[in-house]
Amino acid sequence: MRKIIVLLFLLKGINAAAQDLAFGRKMLDTLTSEYFWGRGYTNDGMKKAAEFLSNEFKAYGLEPMNGKNYFQPFSYPVNTFPGKMEVTVNGKTLLPGRDFIVSPESKGMKAAGELEPLDSIQFINRGEKVIVKIQEKLTWDISPEVAPYALILVEKKAIKETPGSFAINIENKLLSNFKTANVCGIIRGTEKPDSIILVTAHYDHLGGMGRDTYFPGANDNASGVSLLLNLAHYYAKHPQKYSIGFICFAGEEAGLIGSKYFTENPLVPLKSIRFLINTDLAGTGEEGIMVVNATEFPKEFELMTQINKDEKLLADVKPRGKAAISDHYFFTEKGVPAFYFYTMGGIKAYHDVFDKASTLPLNEHEDLFKLLTQFTSKLMSQ
């Protein structure tokens, strides 16, 4: 009988882990779907994602952090490309996202002409103010302004000959006051509700470039949001001694705008935050994770590494110092203890059209879930 009970317990644990991964995979597939159009600035992508996350928080039973709804609205300028996206070089039609990208500050225009070399990789038409630059890898980004030129970045393998002629038809639109929102929910603590542990992740990505191309943003950062949602779903069913807050930030790709706005307009007292855990790029993990701010908070880092060692979870938990590379940063600058971790190894897709759910393994999703729940538990027991 004892063997049967032990077996049933083990099976229950295995099934729970499988459910964690299935939940995470479902969220990843959803957030990277065409409906959300890269969770960006065209086709209402970011707005649709914010509404989805708000509905998830409500379904789990989280309270709005501001007491009214889950949104913390703000705005900022951004250059967008909602329409035509046509480029030919040497008479060859190039595919957006795969053969070329438009540098994010570029001006929209319809033009054609000859190109002269500036150097071995840059070619220019001075009259039309068009620059063609050859790149080894195409990675896109966000710009808050429009330049007086169009810069076309062409993947090296897309053209075999030196660029000599071009034709482009590109439409841009500067949104001087793009409106979006952080999505914020909380589960009140059963004993010390004024002590808070925050779990954060940015939900925005790059959106679309033209009418037919969008950047799914699977690893960056649908993976982190999926992990956050899994934790929110779990803690809603298992309230803790401390309050557990969850923030999905907008505007990270545009310069950590959402997290900076929150620290300047906090919905909870910053001094009440015991610790913040920020997850961004959580979709791989063959080589473990890197923990930013590990050297700033050595006691908590030692706690995390000991849990990982005892439970035999990740291949490695590596320390890194302070870095302004994700949404933890402005919290740390305000005196809030925080870690930002990202997974290492596996696929290298980043800020490109190849960062998609179908090729992202999520191979350490369950172990990350276990590491963070146990780390949170230890923080609350100190």
Word description of this protein:
- The chain is of the alpha/beta class and 382 residues long.
- It folds into two domains: 19-79 and 176-381, 3-Layer(aba) Sandwich (Aminopeptidase); 84-170, no CATH class.
- 29% of the residues lie in helices and 28% in strands.
- It has seven helices and 18 strands.
- It has helices at residues 2-31, 45-60, 218-237, 257-264, 298-311, 329-333, 365-381, and strands at 63-64, 71-80, 85-89, 92-93, 100-102, 109-114, 116-117, 122-125, 130-135, 150-155, 165-170, 173-187, 192-202, 242-249, 273-279, 289-292, 317-320, 338-343.
- The strands form three sheets. Strands 1, 2, 12, 13, 14, 15, 16, 17 and 18 form a nine-stranded mixed sheet that branches. The protein has a five-stranded mixed sheet with strand order 5-10-9-8-7, with no helix packed on it.
- Helix 1 packs across helix 3.
- The radius of gyration is 23 Å and the shape is elongated.
- The protein starts with a helix and ends with a helix.
Summarize the structure.
The protein is α/β, with parallel strands linked by helices. Helix content is 29%, strand content 28%.
Instruction: Average the pLDDT over all residues and give the rounded result.
Output: 95
Strand content: 25-35%
Intertermini distance: 38 Å
Could you say what the CATH topology of the largest domain is called? Aminopeptidase
Spans where pLDDT lies below 50 across 5 or more residues:
1-18
The H-level CATH homologous superfamily of the largest domain, spelled out, is: Zn peptidases
Structural class: alpha/beta
> At the first level of CATH, what is the class of the largest domain?
Alpha Beta
Coarse shape: elongated
Helix content: 25-40%
Largest sheet: 9 strands, mixed
Topology pattern, helix = H, strand = E: HHEEEEEEEEEEEEEHEHEEHEHEH
Helix count equals: 7
CATH architecture of the largest domain: 3-Layer(aba) Sandwich
**What is the domain total for the residues?**
2
Radius of gyration: 23 Å
Q: What is the strand tally?
A: 18
